[in-house]
Automatic annotation (TrEMBL):
Function (record text): Transfers and isomerizes the ribose moiety from AdoMet to the 7-aminomethyl group of 7-deazaguanine (preQ1-tRNA) to give epoxyqueuosine (oQ-tRNA).
Name of the protein this chain belongs to: S-adenosylmethionine:tRNA ribosyltransferase-isomerase
Cross-referenced SUPFAM superfamilies: QueA-like (SSF111337)
E.C. designation(s): 2.4.99.17
Presence of keyword S-adenosyl-L-methionine: yes
Source lineage: Bacteria, Pseudomonadati, Pseudomonadota, Gammaproteobacteria, Moraxellales
GO cellular component: cytoplasm
The organism of origin for this protein: Acinetobacter silvestris
GO molecular function, one term: S-adenosylmethionine:tRNA ribosyltransferase-isomerase activity
InterPro entries, per database record: QueA, QueA_dom1, QueA_dom2, QueA_sf
């Protein structure tokens, strides 16, 4: 398939650059197996899910991963911490007037915390901080909100660009699992009262989620690597859900990628698994685990749009997107949601 097969025109005014006042107040477009769709509210999932169904959510937490600093010469730099390996070593994106070489020193904050460039790792820089990284991020870091917001992070993002169920011990993502931002505690409680179960996976979202596909033939695209964990307890709940004929509902593309990665690693059936994944899901992929997907509306020509097209099909998704545009749905991370049923 060609990259251009996943293109569409989106009016700029439909990009949601700020969240709604209430998390669960978003609209919901339900795309069913026949390709027809229905305009609903997000809280209508209470009526769309059945007792015994299982929602799988990503419990990662977003780091304040963006740091602003200076080179020894005084030139401005921006460091985006992508992956932390120990207290002081990380892989990062670095924006500067010219690419820093190994041995270059960068300085963060008013007390000039030193960051030394060790070398390159693919498209990232390996660096060493002179102080514990998480302490530096806590003091000087900004939330790395998506580039299409066209603004700096604000106080509202501190709360609203995190899920209500994030695990503070899993502070390692540079982007939120945005489909989960629609859930508030009240809605989670109502789902539990109805007998809809929930389980968690962890996928630490990398900045690569925002990178464009640069190959004309999408089959030639190489996905970025992200670390994920599907624990034994979650795999067991999925197995039990499948055995009784209920649905497995992935909340977001990150949960989907974690579940399908685990299934691929375990011979096509869900099992506990932990590791790096570069899974690329696009039309033609045969799903092993996910029956339904809650997701936001995604960028044109993005790997996320390709993933949702694999669950339904490209024609259904693009038709639904055109409907969403006509009906003034809000797009991207702070936007409205879809419920997509697997064909």
């Amino acid at each position: 398939m060609q990259l251009s097969d996943f293109n569409f025109d989106l009016p700029d005014e439909l990009i949601a650059r700020y969240p709604l006042e209430t998390r669960s107040a978003s609209r919901l477009l339900h795309l069913n197996t026949s390709g027809s769709y229905q305009d609903l509210h997000f809280t209508d999932i209470l009526d769309l899910f059945e007792e015994g169904d299982l929602m799988v959510l990503n419990d990662t937490k977003v780091m304040k991963a963006r740091l602003k600093g200076k080179r020894a010469t005084g030139g401005a730099v921006e460091v985006l911490v992508e992956r932390i390996f120990n207290q002081t070593i990380a892989h990062c994106h670095i924006k500067a007037s010219n690419s820093p070489k190994a041995g270059a020193e960068l300085f963060i904050g008013e007390d000039a915390i030193k960051v030394t460039v060790i070398g390159r790792h693919e498209n990232l820089f390996e660096v060493e901080f002179s102080q514990p990284i998480l302490q530096v991020l806590d003091r000087y870091g900004q939330l790395p909100i998506p580039p299409y917001f066209n603004r700096e992070a604000e106080e509202i993002d501190t709360v609203r660009y995190q899920t209500v169920f994030n695990d503070p011990t899993k502070l390692a993502s540079v982007a939120a699992p945005t489909a989960s931002l629609h859930f508030d505690q009240n809605l989670l409680d109502q789902l539990e009262q109805k007998g809809i179960h929930k389980a968690f996976v962890t996928l630490h979202v990398g900045a690569g989620t925002f990178l464009p596909v640069r190959t004309t033939d999408i089959a030639n695209h190489v996905m970025h690597s992200e670390w994920c964990d599907v624990p034994e307890a979650t795999a067991k709940l999925i197995q039990e859900t499948q055995a009784r004929g209920n649905k497995v509902i992935a909340v977001g593309t990150t949960a989907t990628r974690a579940l399908e990665s685990a299934a691929q690693a375990c011979g096509g059936k869900i099992g506990a698994w932990m590791g790096d994944t570069q899974i690329f899901i696009y039309p033609g992929y045969q799903f092993c685990v996910v029956d339904r997907l809650i997701t936001n509306f995604h960028l044109p020509e993005s790997t996320l749009l390709m993933l949702v097209s694999a669950l339904s099909n490209q024609e259904n998704i693009l038709n639904a997107y055109q409907h969403a545009i006509a009906q003034q749905y809000r797009f991207f991370s702070y936007g409205d949601a879809m419920l997509v049923d697997r064909i």
